[in-house]
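Translate sequence into structure tokens.
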Amino acid sequence: MVLVLLILVMVLLYMKFFTMILDSKDSARVNEKTYPYLSDYEDREILIESVDHIFIGEVLEEAGHEWTDDTPHTQFTIRLTQNIKGSILGDITVNQPGGYYKEKGSLKLLKYKGDSLLKPGEMYLFAATVNTESGWYDILPVYGSIKIKTEEQKLLLIEEFTEAMAK
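Result follows.
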């Protein structure tokens, strides 16, 4: 009986320190960083030239987590609703820099200034580049996803990006 309790305690300690199973995301300590942008992506024309695809989609679910270049990345399944640049069909996986990770037994959230993780059930305009190794669509913090709150905003974004592409 003592051996069973000891094993149970060891399993629980392992789960607490090395997995996110017992953690609430609300309790995560936020680590906010500045992203090292290579260009001025506030300029829509520069952003459009820098990406393979621009599209509107709904976030269906969080699909996974990966570490790349010593940084957590979070993957989301997106249901594509409209292409603006490029041609994509069906559901896709978007890869967003940032996310939850464990450090010394504590749950942390890496996010970049001005950005937050995508939320299931929400619509966004995405500016993405295809990652040929994973097949995912990589987005930049802040400029790679714009949350769409209203139908009017969606129409304005489509018009803005379409006009910028025509230049």
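Note: Residues 24-166 form a domain with the OB fold (Dihydrolipoamide Acetyltransferase, E2P) fold (CATH 2.40.50.120).
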